[in-house]
Model the fold of this input.
Amino acid sequence: MRTPLVIAVLALTTGCSMFSKPHAEIPKQPDAPTNQNIVENVGKDIDKVDGRVAAAVAVARENAEKPEVVKAETGVALSYLPAPSEADVAFARQRAGKADQKDYKAAEEYGKKLLAKINADWASMEAQQKEAKRVSDMKDKRIEELTQEVVRVKQEASNNVWTMTGAGLAVIGALITAFMGPKIGLPLLLCGAFCGAVPFIIESPYFEYIAGGTLLVSSGLGLWWLTDKVRDSVNKQSTPPSNDEATPKE
Done:
């Protein structure tokens, strides 16, 4: 009995590895956050800062003839920006001291290129975030599929064990019935049929009713057997001895 069981388990394992569906390869997840809200919130804050700085500078230029307005608006703009380094301040002062329009033009072009690069990098980061979210969802789905696969294989292995046990008991019961009589063989046949039906009984929506009914029937049979044994014992004790048994032997 042990040898067929081992063969069946090996066959089950090999069959699962041969007939299991091949999974698509999951691409590398980008080094980016998977939570879209983080990127969106940061992007909104940056846009708000950029918009207000640009607005303050624009108003300051519109009021160039009003030094107090220019000073106030540029002060507002500076409040939204980090403190500049000493090197950057020195470079700007040198540019203002020369007051060369070529230097201003070059600085403006550099600023536009840098802003374009920042916008492109931000767009790339948003695309990486979406890809990271997609790959992360694929990983979560794969984990769920593998978990379900493990549960399915365990269930199939358990069902096969019950089926093989039932088949083995049925074969043994048939042989014993043929050579030793049905009194010993039929109970084994019934046990084999029951073992083979266990997976279907467990998966049945009426499992609770079947289990309760089986327990009730088993309890009833046990009580009937016990009552019958007690009755036989009482009858045996209360039966008077026969004439042959009462006559003493000479």
Observations:
- The CA atoms of residues 62 and 69 lie 10 Å apart.
- Residues 208-235 form one domain.
- The radius of gyration is 44 Å.
- The first helix runs from residue 2 to 19.
